[in-house]
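Thanks for the sequence, V.! I ran Thioredoxin-like protein right away. Repeating your input here for the record:
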Amino acid sequence: MTEVPIHVELNSRYNAFDTSGKLPFSVVFGLCRLQKSDTDSRPILVETAGSVFDVPYALTHGLLLLYEERPGESTKWVEVDTSSMGEVDESNSGCISVPSPIHRKKNWRDDLTVYLCAIDPQGVLALALKPRKRYRIKLASRDLGVKKWVYSDRERFSDSDGDGEEAKLVNSYSHGHAAFKVVDDLTFPPQLEIRMRLLKSTSLEVTVVNAGSETVTVQPRGHQNFLVPWGPSAPEPDTLDDRPRIIDQSKQRHSPVSSLFVVNDATDEIVRGHHDTSICHLRDSKADLRPTIDELSILKPETPVVNVVDISSKIKGLEDGRYKIRMHPKGCRWWRDVLRKEEGGGEKVPVRLWKSWTVPIMLDSEDELEITIKDGKVDGTRRTFCSDEFITRPAAPLFRRGFALPAEQPRLRLGSIAPNFQAKTTHGDMDFHKFLDNKWTILFSHPADFTPVCTTELGAFAKLKDEFDARGVQMIGLSANDLSSHDQWIDDINETSNTTVQFPIIADADRHVAFLYDMISQDDLDALQKNGGIAFTIRSVFIIDPAKKIRLTMSYPASTGRNTAEVLRVIDSLQTGDKKGIATPIDWQKGQDVIVPPSVSTEDARKKFGDVREVKKYLRFTNVGQ
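Predicted structure:
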């Protein structure tokens, strides 16, 4: 059979496999057509299902190999038996379009087509992995396992493509591997709120507020040692930047302005800052890159840190016109609490802390400042100031991305792992994933304490404690106030509803959890961006199963109270469906007839359930009792 070679590079995103699912993990493929004999001007369209690009399938069908590190006197990589993953079917078909090399104008390494195969942390691959072990995924051979490909300008296959090209698509040569470590204790940063305003023509004031509940120590300059996201063959921009961050207040030769860039207001073209987005100097591998304790910055909760930055270098030489100053997101290494010198440890950050895994805290601001240049100088009468009030926004992305992960559009899909968080509750400090504890859980939010609709809702949920207990379901509420307010409000709820609230209520005064779970209305976000202030939390319900997966969501406007009977009904539906392998029809109540799913034949259904009533071939009913 004729072979058509295509170059494939392999890597991972990120170099940590987070078992909690909060940090998404993908195996990354970079594809490029390099052969001089490749003279077809059309793109190659590749079907991913059942190929190396379908990673779980490929690992169980000999297309990819999994290796585990076995440390010792000499590190060894031992192939892992993937039979524990069981039989893995092809995933839903996806497509990759690889352009022709004929009109390529840049180096091929800068022209890779990037494809990400998102890996479910609770999926079959996890069955073959061990905690705290390092792994590599490699191509097993030149065989890419591609079952269908064509030369086509389209992004999807059509019926006219038939079975595709007869020639076999193969890898030109193997390059790279997807390397990662399995971790279950990643530390995630608090949210920062960053505002900018001009003090005078060349002075920019940057104010940073730690919107979390814990004090953190941040490294504002020097080599940044944190979890680095990798593209198909190189780190992404800004991750390895040694230059001072915008909050650096130490004495230095240059102002920390590498995060700032200037845009022409008329054309939206970057005129300052586009050539200096990232640098990474070569270093001696044995050099001690740890910063000294004195170089670090402390960010206490709700305590502003103000830095005044000279931006004359960004403005000098601009032609007359209107411009906008914006901020590039940049990551910083950080630690919980105030970092102090340890006895016998010298002046630098302790080695044990420096080598630990961490997700960077992001310095980012959505503010943009308008300036007008006239006669080569800033026209002071045309400056635009941002509101002095702080706006609570969603946390900035963990890393800047040149492309988005499909699994993150949006992150809170049904079936996705419920994001973890730490918070204070009326029952004490809580780690949400530890609270879940392999139980069915209802997380429900409220706009504020001492509001009339919320008061009736919490009273109704509290009265149904026995019903939820009977189903093995625990409840936890959330309201956008502090703990002292919660305690007083609970007294009111108990009095007005003649009940006793026994479930915990999260204190989310900074809206951290509200933004994490997207419990914010678009109207409120629009008003917030326009007028400032703080976001209003809507009424949301999340039903989470023992595997920490989000199984059902409900969202209500602040004016509409929820229905506790409906919450109980859908829990009965989910639990019955999981236990019996059925679906439930409209308005179904426990004990009523259920629907046999289309994937089960009528013959098999009768063997499993007994009596089956067939209305249509696709619509069949049975009864599974209580």
